[in-house]
Structure prediction request, 981 residues.
Amino acid sequence: MIRYALPLAVFVLMVGLLGYGLKLDPKKVPSPLIDKAAPEFSLAMLHDSSRSLSTADMRGQVWVLNVWASWCVSCRAEHEVVTALANKNLVTVVGLNYKDKSEDAIRWLQQFGDPYATSVVDFNGKVGIDWGVYGVPETFVIGADGLIKYKHIGPMTMESLEQKVMPVIRELLS
Amino acid sequence: MVPEIGHFALIIALCIAFVQALVPLAGTSLGVQRWVATAVPAALAQLLFVGISYGCLTWAFLSHDFSVLYVAQNSNSELPLIYRISGVWGSHEGSLLLWALVLALWTGAVAVFTPNVPRGMRARVLAVLGLVSCGFLLFIILTSNPFERLLPAATQGRDLNPLLQDIGLAIHPPMLYLGYVGFAVAFAFSIAALISGQVDSAWARWSRPWTNVAWLFLTLGIALGSWWAYYELGWGGWWFWDPVENASFMPWLIGTALMHSLAITEKRGTFKAWTALLAIFAFALSLLGTFLVRSGVLTSVHAFASDPERGVFILGFLVLVVGGSLTLYAWRAPLLKSAAQTQLLSRDGALLLNNIFLAVVTSAILLGTLYPIAIDAMGGKISVGPPYFNLMFILLTAPLGVLMGIGMIVRWKSDSVARLKSKLWLPALLALTAAALLTWLLPVWYWAAFGGLAMAVWIAITVVLAIHERMRNRSLLSALRSTPAGFYGMLLGHLGIAVFIVGVTLTSLYNKEKDLRMAPGDTYSVAGYEFTFHGVRQFDIDNYVATRGGFSVRAEDGDFRVDLFPEKRIYRVQTMPMTEAAIDAGLTRDLFIALGEPLGEGGAWAVRIYYKPFVRWIWLGAIIMSIGGLFAASDRRYRRLARSPSRATDAVEQSR
Amino acid sequence: MRMVLIFMFVLLANSAQAAIEAYEFDSPEMEADYKQLIAELRCLVCQNQNLADSDAELAQDLRRETYEMLQQGKSRQQVMTFMVERYGDFVLYRPQFKSSTYLLWLGPFLLLVIVLAIVVKRLRAAAKPVDVDADALADAKSLLEEEQTKK
Prediction:
């Protein structure tokens, strides 16, 4: 009489799924851009709006794009981690100043220190959309071939920097 | 002091629930009558102590005791009295306490209102309910204690979430819980019957009124929630297929299937195992809903602050209760024998098909709700939303509409194609003609409108035909006297569905929506109504500040006029903006205005205007359905049996 | 605990307010396309809300993007592809029909067909050897049972 045990079997499968589901974060959405070419942009620099930086300028080197804003509370928490990454002097760290007022952004960098080689201004968030940014901060690791290799959603911690971001960077550099 | 009494009462209630769960069960299996007899007093004592505990929390709200963390988080000294009472279930901890109270109330009701049920059976039912109580009381005490103190006490509370400061949402949770938790009774009857082996007509008869009442509360609860979302969230939608909504809708669908299946089991003594299984499913889905809403595995608009620790507890509880029940089922169900054969062309067959479609559509909703977790587990991420659910729901329930008409006319046991044809060709023709005519009268011809209307008219006509069949060869008086209330219940339930179908069809196809910029003095016309904006004014009310827009609406033909005042509110404590739509409700249409943001100079505002034809019919249908449920539950049959002594059945019971 | 509270607060604040914008459209068809798109695209930062209902800033930006693309003459499908390329399948409330979603789209119908087939087959099989006596016996039995419980 296997058919009477069928509901139990289906239930067991479902519980397994739900139990596994408890470990997952339903709010983290993986980026479809991994292993795809980094979207092109050409944006004015934060400190010198007459000069601009584009994705093409970065071709040929491993670099990191960190999306940040002065209004973003968790960017402040992440700030020391980005600084630590920049201080390793392994890769160029570019800041994407997302939907921010430039004077606020400059003051923010003066107050906490500027870890970025350059910050570019995405005033209306259009480049953010191209990069699939949905929450600030976000961090992208891009290889010398111009492909996005890794995306970190939310603030990095020292732990996630060492365990997740650095291994990708080291592999790209080697 | 009072909160500690509340906490202590909860612990005592838990102890009593343990006794209620274990002693009567041991008593029935060992044949110790004195142990069996503990079930009723234990159930009542548990109700008393959960009641005391609940009263203490309410007292803390009423007396602004901000030294209780939960009160400090969900109340404020400016909060109006009614929301201090409803604030008790305004968040996770208190709503669980409400759940426990509702369960205790149902348990108490079973203890008092089942004199016709043999003592052994009643003791088992109460024991199973006690077991469920244990789980929930433990859950509250271990993970979600609402009486936790805040030291030092807050001087002021953080206020109840403004979304919940609304009369619709104040009564929505108790209704919903009365429904959800009410299925625990049908579940307990099913488990008790599986344990004792007495899965038969009598068992179905005992379960039926309880199932009907739970179902009618759930119907009202869901309708209230939908109505609230319609006017309070400012979106004008009435159903979003959010996981939380699905969590309440799945038990409703299975509960509906259960009501029908209990009818066959009572009448014909067939489908016993299936009916028992449905009773387990209805409650299992209620528990699953609790898990989905409170564990954080899914994102939902209405989710409680999620906590994985709570998720683990509920999942464990789910495994224990549902896993245990299904194991019992797998063991006992093969022993059940049908008392009769079933033929497809009979009312039995029609009810069977009803059950199949309802079960399949529930599976589709469950699949859609859980599919994102499965994809996530495999490393991807997808969303399953309204486009999927609407399609599945319409395709899988459309056959039910046709079946409903046939089901009311077809005979029990067996029937002939010829007889059905002779009865039903005219109603079918009438339905199609009437629907064609009605759709032609509407502004645009949509085949979907034709289909929906044909279905509604078909159901309405077959309801009339069913009455006609009942009256035939009888005087009006004798027909009225001999017709059981359950029959009217069925008719009303089905009529409610017809009304609901009209509402859904016309609202979704013919609604008009316009987002626009309006400066004072501007006029815009939508669906034959002219809307004129007169600017906004500020008002200072209880615990919020309102920006109120003035609109006058005029029908382009005719002399209908109405003034509407949509608001934007800022609640002072949580500084949270809220859109309060203004609605002119009517039987054939709602006019709906919501205020957006101010746009630049000159007092211009972003404004949303809706014209929603027949939207009230959606909730009207639900109300008619639940009145049907009330009729069905009040059938004399259940009460007549209640008066007869049950000594004989006790003897039978003990000889088993 | 405090984190949870802040989270709750933010989440509900998002959902309390209607998102209303006054876009002008070249044609009613374009307006219909726009409405369908923002109804079927998911707001990523929200708790299960579509772009139409969300007041979140990203949702506003994406609505504007959708509007601009339609104004430029892009089709509905092109807008959806644009969104999926950037945010993944997660943005679609109507999951694409592909190998990972076959079960989702076909499962319910498959289940229906299987169940109907089994039921019809079993009812037929049971109906064939209809033995009048057995039938009557079963009926009598159930009647008897009922009688017993009534007493």
Notes: The longest helix of chain B spans residues 201-232. The two ends of chain B are 51 Å apart (CA to CA). Chain B touches chain C through 79 residues (CB under 8 Å).
